[in-house]
Amino acid sequence: MNAAHRLGEMGTPEALLALLDRFTINVSPSGQDEQEKEEVLSWIVQMGEKAVPPLVQFLKRERQVYWAARTLRETVKEEEFAEKINGVLRDHWENPPASSDPTAQLIRLLGVRSPQLVDTVALFLGDEADDVRLAALDYLFDQSEDPARELSLECYLDSEDRPRVRNHILERFAEEGWSVKGFRPKIEDTLPEGYKLTRDGKVRTVGSGQ
């Protein structure tokens, strides 16, 4: 950690990027590893705004994003965090990473809402990876019913060969009590075994007694 401390003291963008690489390394024992990463997080947060560009650059290129996303969240106010993460996700959409992991992780780590983020996350309902679609769906389901309901139903229809995604949407609709109004014929024709629609278009599991 002496080398990491020296990088933190240097404070240049290049040094900060090198310091952020500590977040990609796992060492034993795990308790020590987490403590050292907490120290790195604390050093970077103390640097304030000058740490933001390297954090954003790191989040655009790296696969392990948990610690860097946490660091950014603790460095800036919520509005700026939403703006910066939105930019990172837009970059992931336009330049998809080799792995879907960082995109799915970032969406699940958001914890904030803005109209721009809702629009950006909705793009990932068309992602090639089921894990990314599921992360995007969960983010949208945690927002208001409008526009999440229609976006989710459109994703359902677009996921004909993705049973995990379809089942997840139906489960969440059953939990939320949302209807499939406007989509009923197409949804009814494609309902998998174990689900049904009520008269008012709400999703129920077979045997639920409702």
Shape: elongated
Query: Structural class of the helices, strands and pairings?
Result: mainly alpha
Quantity of strands, as a count: 2
Mean pLDDT: 91
- Within the largest sheet, what's the order of strands? 1-2
Radius of gyration, in angstroms, nearest whole number:
21 Å
Give the DSSP E fraction (strand runs of 2 or more residues): under 5%
Q: What kind of sheet is the major sheet?
A: 2 strands, antiparallel
Terminal CA distance? 59 Å
What's the order of the H and E elements? HHHHHHHHHHHHEE
Helical content, roughly? 55-70%
Low-confidence stretches: none
In DSSP terms (H or I, runs of 4 or more residues), the helix count works out at: 12
Give the structure's gist in a few sentences:
The chain has 210 residues and is an all-alpha fold. It contains 12 helices and 2 strands; from the N terminus they run H-H-H-H-H-H-H-H-H-H-H-H-E-E.
Question: Can you give keywords for this protein?
Answer:
12 helices; 210 residues; two-stranded antiparallel sheet; 2 strands; single chain; mainly alpha
How would you explain this protein's 3D organization?
The structure is a single chain. The protein contains 12 helices and 2 strands; from the N terminus they run ααααααααααααββ. With 210 residues, it is an all-alpha fold. It has a domain at 144-210. The protein has a two-stranded antiparallel sheet with strand order 1-2. α3 packs parallel to α5 and α4 (52-61) runs parallel beside α6 (78-94). The termini are far apart.
